[in-house]
Amino acid sequence: MKINSPRFVDKTPMSGIIKVFPFVVGILFLLNYTATTPHGDSHTETDPTRPASTLYTKQPRSRDGIGKIYMGREISQVMGHLGADWLERPQREREEMPTHLIELINFKEGDVVADIGIGTGYIARRISPKIGDTGLIYGVEIQQEMLDILDVKMKEVGIKNIKGILGTIEDPKLPPNSVDVAIMVDVYHEFSHPYEMMQNICRGMKPGGRVVFVEYRAEDPSVLIKPLHKMSELQVIKEATPHPLAWVETFDELPQQHVIIFEKIAGD
Ligand SMILES: C[S@@+](CC[C@H](N)C(=O)[O-])C[C@H]1O[C@@H](n2cnc3c(N)ncnc32)[C@H](O)[C@@H]1O
């Protein structure tokens, strides 16, 4: 903020108040500005490579949300590692048909896959045999406890082609241009920084690589999942396409979830 205005050279008795007034107003303005930034910190405003602070807004948080709005959607809370057993529930195959999900995506021998929000590895365990010994799955998590469970489970069944990565809430820390398929099963709606996560996921993708969103269908009232844990196809497309991603296809044949597939646009 520029403060060398001619107004500040006044020597009258009121000049002290007049001098500090703009500082007070300026500080109040800055406090308000940073309190409403997406990140709760001020670096967003000083880094021109980052999106404008209006990308995210705040509201009182609802029951399952974090009170942060992105493109008209309140972001949900992250599922904690204490819910790990739910991911491994025996009825999951009947309820969600993950085996069929894996068939739909058509993984290939030797593929490099990023399972973002890998949890206990329930989905990755089903991808692992499809990509074989020449393939690799980066299992990205923000909860070390999940990675510890993943480790134990992979050892139990002798799977060696999954490599855990402890990411951050903004960055999955994938090697650049390395991934053929990135998959997010019941994860994207939990990203506290969806814009930054998608930017960094895209950096990790090979040109032509596929990014797969698997989300409970918000359009379908018979899907009995809490609203913030569901997403419509349109909303996913709206949030994916500011990034170098082109929509390819959507499968709606699973019992509860959309499978929405994008391709990384070459050259971006
Ligand atoms: C509901 S669980 C789904 C786990 C797994 N995909 C499955 O379907 O079994 C969501 C997981 O996403 C993880 N997660 C949330 N935000 C993340 C982020 N920014 N980066 C990586 N993982 C994240 C959470 O820690 C949690 O383990």
What does this structure look like?
β1 (56-58) and β2 (65-70) form a beta hairpin. The strands form two sheets. Strands 4, 5, 6, 7, 8, 9, 10 and 11 form an eight-stranded mixed beta sheet that branches. A three-stranded antiparallel beta sheet has the order 1-2-3, with no helix packed on it. It is globular and about 45 Å long. Helix content is 32%, strand content 25%. The chain has helices at residues 15-35, 43-46, 84-87, 92-96, 98-105, 122-131, 144-157, 194-204, 233-240; strands at 56-58, 65-70, 73-76, 112-116, 136-141, 162-166, 179-185, 205-217, 230-231, 245-251, 257-264. With 268 residues, the protein is an alpha/beta fold. The protein has one domain (23-264): Rossmann fold, CATH 3.40.50. Mean pLDDT is 85; it is low at 1-48. S-adenosylmethionine is lined by residues 78-79, 87, 116-119, 122-123, 140-143, 146, 167, 169, 172, 185-187, 190-191, 197.
Short description:
This protein is α/β, with parallel strands linked by helices.
CATH topology: Rossmann fold
Low-confidence stretches: 1-48
Number of helices: 9
Per CATH, the superfamily is: Vaccinia Virus protein VP39
Q: What is the CATH C-level name? A: Alpha Beta
Distinct ligands: S-adenosylmethionine
The share of residues in helices is: 25-40%
Distance between the termini: 35 Å
Global morphology: globular
Question: How many separate domains?
Answer: 1
Strand content of the residues, in percent? 15-25%
